[in-house]
Design goal:
184 residues, 4 helices, 12 strands
Length: 184
């Protein structure tokens, strides 16, 4: 690749896995936990436990109609449940919920046993307490994208929790920001 010969111009280089990951760590992302109810086994499906995972890929997609999205790797332990779930909840975490984010990002544990601050909501969806906001969504569509799937959801209900600063992920760690003082 070539570089524009101007002061302050960034050198463009070919993309490789390590440089791609390093660059994405520079983007600050809101931290959410997505939950889905367990599923009863049937003729064609095995029984699946409830799922919950930490995600930084949550986004508002559309206001008309209301749509949101998140991404999940298809190798994730949560994927089998989310792949068949009709409803999910997205929890926007507060700065005080770093431990919740850590628990739901940990592989190989029963995340719901490790975090007792949840209850069963509509459609059997696990709801986590004290989140800044919660969106209960109907899964509208799943779109394969590389090794992940983009899940689109239509919000059916929402709840605003206690006011506070959001939990962010930046440079491989959790952070937050407080209200900015206006110079005016």
């Amino acid at each position: 690749m070539t570089t524009v010969d101007r002061p302050g111009a960034a050198e463009l280089r070919p993309v490789d896995d390590d440089s791609f990951r390093a660059l994405l760590r520079r983007q600050a992302s809101t931290v959410t936990v997505v939950t889905a109810p367990g599923l009863s086994g049937g003729r064609h499906l095995p029984a699946l436990p409830p799922a919950g995972f930490t995600a930084t890929s949550f986004a508002s997609v559309s206001l008309e109609p209301p749509l949101v999205s998140f991404c999940l790797g298809r190798e994730s332990s949560s994927w089998p449940t989310v792949a068949h779930a009709e409803h999910v909840a997205v929890h926007l975490l507060s700065a005080e919920q770093q431990e919740v984010a850590r628990i739901f990002a940990t592989s190989g544990i029963d995340r719901f046993a490790a975090h007792p601050g949840w209850h069963t909501g509509p459609f059997g969806v696990p709801l986590i307490g004290d989140a800044l906001a919660v969106l209960l969504c109907r899964v509208t569509r799943r779109i394969k994208a590389g090794d992940h799937t983009i899940v689109l959801g239509t919000p059916l209900a929402l709840a605003a929790g206690p006011d506070g600063d959001p939990l962010l992920r930046h440079r491989g760690g959790y952070t937050t920001f407080g209200p900015q003082q206006s110079p005016w």
